[in-house]
């Protein structure tokens, strides 16, 4: 009966707005969980940087390895912070979409018609490209198109995954390490010593260092992936 009615009179506006709101709430909860998880990763990574610093101070023979480890963790911390900022921005966009959708349906109830919104279309196109929301945002875009709030489906040519970010500048790494180690040393009144960048060495030694650094990088990434899981 409901299917026949929808064919004759069109989709039920109340059912449409409920479904859109449910999808928006679902996506908002997903973003909240992801943001909280990234905050936990950030906290653990800060602890690992401090632990590596302490280990290097206690055992001078491990100072070089500990310094490299600190810089690797600092780079991961920077990436985590950038991802968290991106998700917070996306959540604000999603909340804006929710308010605009509610307003559009309210206008439809009063005026009997609904106008497409370029603003909503722009936000939905942006959010559907977010890997964390791609599936459910596609569903939301379809519902909004059925309701006439957006005029066309978002493009199908979406990126296969998150683009690999460029390596963070050494100055940014130094800034993060200074921030974290300064907090640790503030109680003692000491000035934190930032782990130095590798010094140029003869070719043979440099090749050996590259292999060691690559192995350490793989190890650090594995530990960070374990944190995120």
From TrEMBL:
InterPro entries: Snf7_fam (IPR005024). Pfam families: Snf7. Residues 184-214 are annotated as: Disordered. One of its GO terms (biological process) is vacuolar transport. This is Snf7-domain-containing protein.
């Amino acid at each position: 009966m409901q299917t026949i009615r929808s064919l004759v009179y069109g989709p039920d506006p109340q059912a449409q707005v409920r479904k859109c709101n449910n999808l928006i709430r679902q996506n908002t909860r997903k973003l909240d969980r992801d943001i909280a998880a990234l905050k936990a990763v950030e906290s653990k990574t800060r602890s690992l940087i401090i632990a590596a610093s302490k280990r290097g101070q206690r055992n001078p023979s491990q100072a070089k390895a500990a310094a490299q480890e600190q810089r690797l963790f600092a780079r991961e911390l920077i990436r985590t912070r950038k991802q968290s900022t991106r998700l917070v921005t996306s959540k604000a966009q999603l909340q804006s979409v929710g308010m605009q959708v509610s307003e559009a349906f309210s206008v439809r109830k009063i005026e009997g018609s609904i106008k497409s919104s370029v603003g909503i279309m722009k936000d939905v196109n942006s959010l559907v490209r977010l890997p964390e929301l791609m599936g459910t945002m596609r569903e939301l875009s379809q519902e909004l198109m059925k309701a006439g709030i957006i005029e066309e489906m978002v493009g199908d040519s979406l990126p296969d995954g998150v683009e690999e970010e460029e390596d963070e500048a050494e100055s940014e790494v130094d800034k993060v390490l200074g921030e974290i180690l300064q907090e640790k040393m503030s109680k003692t009144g000491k000035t934190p010593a930032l782990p130095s960048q590798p010094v140029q060495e003869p070719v043979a030694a440099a090749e050996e260092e590259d292999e060691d650094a690559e192995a350490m990088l793989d190890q650090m990434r594995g530990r960070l992936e374990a944190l995120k899981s």
